[in-house]
Amino acid sequence: MINVKDQVYSAIKGICEQVTDLYPGNWAQLPAIQYTEEENRVQEWTDGEEQKAYLRYRIDVWNSGSTSVATLAVDQAISALGLMRTSCSDVPDPSGLRHKQIRYEGVIDVHTEQVYNNDIY
Prior knowledge:
Strands 1-2-3-5-4 form a 5-stranded mixed beta sheet, with helices on one face. Strand 2 (32-46) and strand 3 form a beta hairpin. It is built from 2 helices and 5 strands, in the order H-E-E-E-H-E-E. Helix content is 17%, strand content 43%. The protein has a single domain (5-22, 29-119), classed as STM4215-like. The mean pLDDT is 89.
């Protein structure tokens, strides 16, 4: 298994002040970005050794107004890592906040950390 969580955090940490892998803790400080590794599994084994890993990340963006600026910045940062955006949708939020949920996927060569987006499905 390859750990790319630090790379994801480094890519998005400058987008806003509140970037976390936990549920946002300060709703007065918006926008807020939460990143979650939803899946990290072996994609390919060769001679008993992991060669490729499949990754799926979910990024949630909350704001009191539009989420567009933060969402575009997230998309640019995560896409630069080689992960492909597979979905992006508005999520109804009873609090009245704007909530955008984005998913990214990719297959990574464990030894070189090269992303193979065409191997996702």
